[in-house]
Amino acid sequence: WFLFLQNPKTSAIVRQLVAEGNAAELQKYFGSRMEFGTAGLRAAMGAGISHMNDLTIIQTTQGFCRYLEKNFSDLKKRGVVIGFDARAHFSSGGSSKRFARLAANTFISQGVPVYLFSDITPTPFVPYTVTHLKLCAGIMVTASHNPKQDNGYKVYWENGAQIISPHDKGISQAIEENQEPWPQAWNDKLIDNSPLLHDPYATVNKDYFKDIQKQCFHRNINKATNLKFVHTSVHGVGHKFVQLAFKAFDLSPPFAVPEQKDPDPEFPTVKYPNPEEGKGVLTLSFALAEKDGAKIILANDPDADRLAVAEKQESGEWKVFSGNELGALLGWWIFTCWKNHNRDNCAIKDVYMLSSTVSSKILRAIALKEGFHFEETLTGFKWMGNRAKQLMDQGKAVLFAFEEAIGYMCCPAVLDKDGVSAAVITAEMASFLATRNLSLSQQLKAVYDEYGFHITKASYFICHDPKVIQQLFDNLRNFDGKNTYPKSCGRFKVSGIRDLTTGYDSSQPDQKAILPTSKSSQMITFTFANGGVATMRTSGTEPKIKYYSELCAPPGNSDIEQLKKELDELVNALEKHFFQPEKNNLKRKTE
């Protein structure tokens, strides 16, 4: 490792540990190599093969480069795009920008053109650039909303979607075969005068905002609206781009939270830079909204691919919409806009919306009533992006896709979640509703009244011990003896089980799951006799066991309080009997 390394800061960290004889820390740094999966890499920045650092970035990119050479005969003609966020880790000398430059240097040294953004950009700009410039692949250096010490390396294929299997395994194998840095691997200054280096920043900024304007349907209302918005980028990259998106839609710019609008890798004003965590992240946004009389808050995560929305209620309280609630609103809105601009009744047979299997089934209810197609995919936008591209290649119109983790694909120009376009489309929807004297909350109720209430509840437990997680899921698969799943959860009778780790599905004639299965991650879905559905799964990027639950009622059932009570009881039973937090020493999500 020392033979390969040329970063004095990471080298010094390891030499110090060796001098101290600190075997435990050295084991942490060198015990196992970061695993390259469909999400690419995600780990803390620091020394050793288990962390994100200059050397592991060089090795990863060398493997990726060799894999692309194998798959694309025209790689040296088309090239790749590389973007980065504003993360930095001063003690190890790592930063997203440095990692991006080292990655660019790796490709350029092999004669591959690189479109390297000259400044920070939102993650969705990378998949957009891949398809817009017809490139072979894209890399985004970001850890999204992870804690400040983390960084990541996210990979897109030529179709503009995140990679899925078998590319992850192929790239992983190629990384193993290309550990030794190539000559010039460390000299990233070489790229600055290379004819193979291109900066797509100006072109993409112009073209992206032109493309998202195709989703702008009420320009006159936007120009005239008195509705005020607050926006926070939570110390990330989003500020400038959301301001430009509002301008593209002829909306007055949102008030930016001053303490959070500029990128800061320390994320000083929040415990976690993740708007999904709820009101704690939005404290400064609420204060600014109260001061400036804004009714709606739009919050991006640090790489601006997710969006959280809050609205001031008549009671004076703030409601933070869940990912499922905003998915319901955006699904309704985008379909309504499409319907108003497509009077041809036949066209609806080619219209699709997608959501992940752990997200609310509200889109399915809307699709059933309105006559378009709905499909669910495995969890994550890698599945929705790839499926959307398949459908689009067949001449279908994929209007919208979402996941409950506040990710929305509102525009077919980006086959991934995009918090910039989602923010401005939400603002246009709210402005339109205001002309009808309706709030977002009132419209959400109207959607549920028309298509049936879909009550959801999701949370997670933190667990840093993989053995405990494995044992918990093994227990569920051997509940009343070997290979038996639970028949009940407290007072709730289990009527169906789908296990996407093993491929078992009790509802299928051959008991085989239809969705793809993966032995490397845990995921079990329980259907209950009362119509409730609950999924337990592990996170691919964080030490969490997550759960998602939903109760659906047909249109006309307006006893929402009873539904909420029933779901609360189901979730309590799930936590008590299936998670067993005390026995398994699980840490509950805290606000």
Which key terms come to mind for this protein?
alpha/beta; 19 helices; Alpha-D-Glucose-1,6-Bisphosphate, Chain A, domain 3; 6-stranded mixed β-sheet; globular; 37% helix; 8-stranded antiparallel β-sheet; 4 domains; single chain; 591 residues
What value does the average pLDDT take?
Answer: 94
Question: Quick one: how many beta strands?
Answer: 25
Radius of gyration: 24 Å
Uncertain runs are none
Q: Main beta sheet, described?
A: 8 strands, antiparallel
CATH class annotation of the largest domain: Alpha Beta
- CATH topology assignment of the largest domain: Alpha-D-Glucose-1,6-Bisphosphate, Chain A, domain 3
Identify the CATH homologous superfamily of the largest domain. Answer: Alpha-D-Glucose-1,6-Bisphosphate, subunit A, domain 3
Shape: globular
Q: What is the CATH architecture annotation of the largest domain?
A: 3-Layer(aba) Sandwich
The helix content is 25-40%
Counting copies of identical and different chains, the oligomeric state is single chain
User: Helix/strand-derived class?
Assistant: alpha/beta
Number of helices: 19
Note the gap between the termini.
41 Å
Please indicate the count of domains: 4
